[in-house]
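Sequence in, structure out. Go.
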Amino acid sequence: MKKDPYQVIKTVSITEKSNSLMEHNQYTFVVHKRANKLEIKNAVQLLFDRKVKAVNVINRKGKTKRTRFGTGNKPDWRKAIVTLKDGEEGIDLF
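Output:
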C-alpha cells in the first residue's frame, strides 16, 4: 500500500533536542503510526527535494492524564529522525 507523502509526515517536531540535531543535518518529524522507513524516506525526498541517508524510527507511548472523571490516555505516536546525505543543503523550517 503506497501512502501519500502528506499522510506519512504529519508535522515537524521542534524541540531543544531536534534543534541541536539540525546542526548535524538530522531532522525530526512526527509521522503516521503505520509508516515504515522506506515510506518516510520517499516522503521526505518528494516533499523537501533532499537526498536521505538514514531514517531512525521511535514509537512513543501516549502519556496517562488524570481528569476529574478518572484517567485517560493521550494517543500513541511515532517519531522519525531523518539524516540527510553529506553535502545536502539543510531543510528551511523557519
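Check: The CA atoms of residues 63 and 69 lie 17 Å apart. The helical segments are 5-8, 16-22, 37-48.
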